[in-house]
Amino acid sequence: MDAGAESNVAVLRAADLQGVSGFANKPHPGEVIHEMGTARMGKDPKQSVVNAFNQCHDAANVFITDGACMASTACQNPSLTYMALTARACAYAVDQLKRGAL
User: Fold this and answer.
1) Is 28 a catalytic residue?
2) Looking at residue 68, what DSSP letter applies?
3) What is the dihedral of CA 66, 72, 77, 81, to 10 degrees?
4) pLDDT tens-digit profile of 7-66?
5) Bridge partners of residue 50, in order along the sequence
6) Of 34, 40, 57, 88, which is the active-site residue?
7) What is the pTM of this model?
């Protein structure tokens, strides 16, 4: 257990929490990764792959709604963000289909 984990355990025990213990598990390679940034979102087609609705600049009927549009992320699970991006992209795509733009 590293110093940060030891400090956290000490704080929790000082607050009278019961059954607190640390752990020193190291993830296996590839276990906690979120690939990001391979289809960056942006306004300029020369510097990005998708627009604000995850629609490809070069192919209007292609939407990329995974983490590829995000330049980076923290170690927390980004699944809810992916779901929100997908919902927004779908709503936009349906609107565009209704307008005859796709």
Assistant:
1) no
2) G
3) -50
4) 999 999 999 999 998 887 777 777 766 667 789 999 999 999 999 999 999 999 999 998
5) 41, 56
6) 34
7) 0.65
